[in-house]
Structures are given as structure tokens and as C-alpha cells.
Amino acid sequence: MSLLAVEALSKSFGGVNAVQDLSFEIEQGKIHSIIGPNGAGKTTVFNLLTGLYKPSTGRVTFDGDEVTGREPHDLARRGMSRTFQNLQICFNMSAIENVMVGAHLRLDQRLLCCLLRLPAVRRSDAACRDEAAELMRFVGVGKYVGSDAGGMPYGALKRLEIARALAARPRLLLLDEPAAGLNPTETHEIDELIQKVAASGTTVVLVEHDMKLVMGISDHILVLDYGKKLAEGSAQEVRSNPEVIAAYLGAVSEPRGERQEA
Ligand SMILES: Nc1ncnc2c1ncn2[C@@H]1O[C@H](COP(=O)(O)OP(=O)(O)O)[C@@H](O)[C@H]1O
Ligand SMILES: [Mg+2]
User: Fold this and answer.
1) Segment 34-55 mean pLDDT
2) How far does the centroid of ligand 1 lie from the alpha carbon of residue 125, in Å?
3) Core-most of 32, 58, 118, 216, by most CB within 10 Å?
4) How far is the first Cα of the chain from the last one, in angstroms, to the nearest whole number?
């Protein structure tokens, strides 16, 4: 049985059909990617899966339960966690506190106490902090354990977001453009990190424009165009699909696969 099944999912905003009649499955333990030109509907799919948007039509099943239209905290508690295309870091908090926030949904209200440092929860605060520090080391930003988020470089903040998403101990991790704005060395490190996350048993869904990264690590790729499924399959199948080449891959030499708007 697949971990996540999406059936005939659609979302429109006024006259814009951002996602149209989309069906796909996510297999447990695999690295899946969703690719397509800007505006294809990739982030909208993430927003629908994680409960930020309610679908116009369709059905989402996670781990055997129908979860269509559930609230983000419910889906997070069930094991869905994500990062955002644009950094969502609290710059008035320390780096480690940003990661501790990710445990919030797993620990329910205890994290609030943990952040308020109520004496009764000192012990869980310490455990929470230790786990956050361990996650920071896991994603490769261990040297910032004692730092303010505001003092960290952009590449490290992208990885801090992954640590925060992992703090919820997800079964399914959705990464929205984790390599955007990174240099080739940093992108290679993200590549290794995603593989490490997958090897630790977390199923990954990746939205990313860096085709070298996507083609290298994906077990399965879904290609979107104008909110619809254009193709899906292995990297080899997708790469050799003439429709995909025409709509997207043919343009990857242009900056970030952007398409001219008519
Ligand atoms: N909250 C929203 N309100 C109105 N239109 C939206 C909203 N979110 C996305 N869209 C539109 O939906 C389409 C798909 O956007 P998006 O999912 O962000 O694409 P991608 O992530 O593939 O670049 C675009 O036309 C975008 O303008
Ligand atoms: Mg997007």
C-alpha cells in the first residue's frame, strides 16, 4: 500500500486552475520528485497535501486514512512535515529554538512550556533541546547550535528548516525547493542530506528545479504542467519523454526553467 494516495485533486483560485484532476501515489521509503515550470502547481500541491489549502475536488489518503481537507496540525500529527519555498525562519529566536518549534506538533502544548521554561518541564526542555541539537548536527549545521538564527548564512538556514521539519519526526517529508539559491557545493550537500533522510526511513517528496539533483536522487518523478500531470516515471523515463522535453526539460538551460509567459 502506498503511504500517500491522491485522487482527482483539483484547486482553483478564481479563474486559475492551479491543480487539475491530479492523481498520483507516493510509495513508502522512496524519494519522489515533482517538477515542472514555474506556476505549474507544485507548491499548491504541497499546500493541499499539508492542509494549508482545501481542495476544490478530490481525495487524499495518508497511511490508509482519508485526510482530505484536514487541518495542518492534524496532518502534522499524523506524520506529514514540510519546508517552504521561501524561508520561514523566526529571526528573533535562536537557531536551536527554531528547530524546537518543529517538535511542537509532536509534543502538543509541551513545547510552549518548554520555551517558557516552566520549572515543571525543565527535563523535557533539556530533552527537546538535546534532540534539536542532534538534528542540527544531522543536517550539517551543528556549529550554529549556540547561534541566533539571524547570524546564519542563507545555505545554513535552508538546512535549519529541514532540521525543524525533522523535529516533528515525520513519516513523509515534503521539501519545496531546498536547493534554490544555493551554490553547486551547497546543492551537492543538500543532495547528500536528502539521501541520508531517506535512508533513515523518512519518505521524501521533493520539489526542485535543479535537474542534476532531481535526476540523480529520485526513485520516481511526477511532471506537472499547467496544474496537470504531464508524465511520471523513473528519471530515465521522464528524461526521454518528448512532451516533458518540450514543456520543461528543453528549457532547463535557461535560468531555473522559467518559461516566457504569453
Ligand atoms: N493563494 C493563491 N491565490 C491565487 N493564486 C494562487 C495561489 N497560490 C497559487 N496560485 C496560482 O496557482 C498557480 C500555481 O502556483 P504554484 O503552485 O505556486 O506553482 P509552482 O510552485 O509550480 O511554481 C499559479 O498560477 C499561481 O499564481
Ligand atoms: Mg513553488
Assistant:
1) 97
2) 39
3) 32
4) 42
